[in-house]
Design brief:
Blueprint (H helix, E strand, L loop, with lengths): L2 E4 L7 H12 L4 E3 L6 E5 L3 H11 L9 E3 L3 H4 L8 H10 L4 E6 L13 E5 L4 H10 L3 E5 L13 H8 L5 E4 L9 E4 L6 E4 L9
């Protein structure tokens, strides 16, 4: 059964974050808060953990559209081809924030994603998520926690999330109530920005 751990967003406890990082390094799956909905994540370098997330989501790993949660813009260049100035300016304006940007991937993508030409990048404005990635030393692969209920698309209560997911994951972080609006997805891999999904993030950044 998963561990349920409380971490405060305003000042994440370093020891608690270290516990989360240990779980991730051991191939564990963690549910954690972002600046939008709660996410399910694992260490980007752990093949077994990536397979587990793909299985939970019912998708083939190489075809999965997972996001990479990065600590800042300098992290992004590890997995993204060189981008032009106008694209960089959009990222600078928007991040950290409630956006997922589709960008052209480079040759350093983990082997599971080698066939993908693009990658979804997030730098959420949430101190818990950012501190986890910072202490881990590399991005986490992430996907939103959806709800099967037709009325509620995303569960916002961490205790209810724990009830539902405790036998599927290794740790659930209670970082307070989540949002029920997902990130805005913008494709910047072509010449012009393409809005894939309007979510929490405003389009004024474009």
């Amino acid at each position: 059964m998963a561990e349920f751990i409380k971490i405060y967003t305003d000042k994440p406890n370093e020891a608690a974050i270290a516990k989360v990082v240990k779980v991730l390094k051991n191939g564990g799956l963690v549910i954690y808060p972002t600046d939008t909905v709660y996410g399910l994540g694992c260490d980007i370098t752990n093949s077994r953990a990536l397979e587990r997330i793909a299985k939970i989501k019912g998708v083939k790993l190489e075809k999965a559209n997972f996001s990479f949660i990065c600590h800042d813009l300098s992290n992004i260049s590890d997995y993204v081809r060189q981008i032009d100035t106008s694209t960089f300016k959009i990222l600078k304006r928007a991040l950290p924030g409630p956006y997922t940007f589709i960008l052209p991937g480079n040759n350093s993508l983990p082997k599971e994603f080698k066939k993908k030409t693009t990658v979804g990048i997030r730098v959420p404005d949430n101190s818990i998520a950012l501190e986890i990635v910072r202490q881990l030393g590399n991005p986490i692969v992430s996907t939103s926690i959806r709800d099967e209920d037709d009325v509620i698309e995303y569960t916002t209560d961490p205790e209810l999330i724990f009830e539902k997911w405790q036998n599927l994951v290794d740790m659930v972080i209670d970082g307070g109530y989540g949002d029920n609006v997902a990130s805005t997805i913008i494709d910047l891999s072509e010449n012009e920005p393409i809005i894939i999904r309007e979510g929490k993030g405003s389009l004024d950044i474009l």
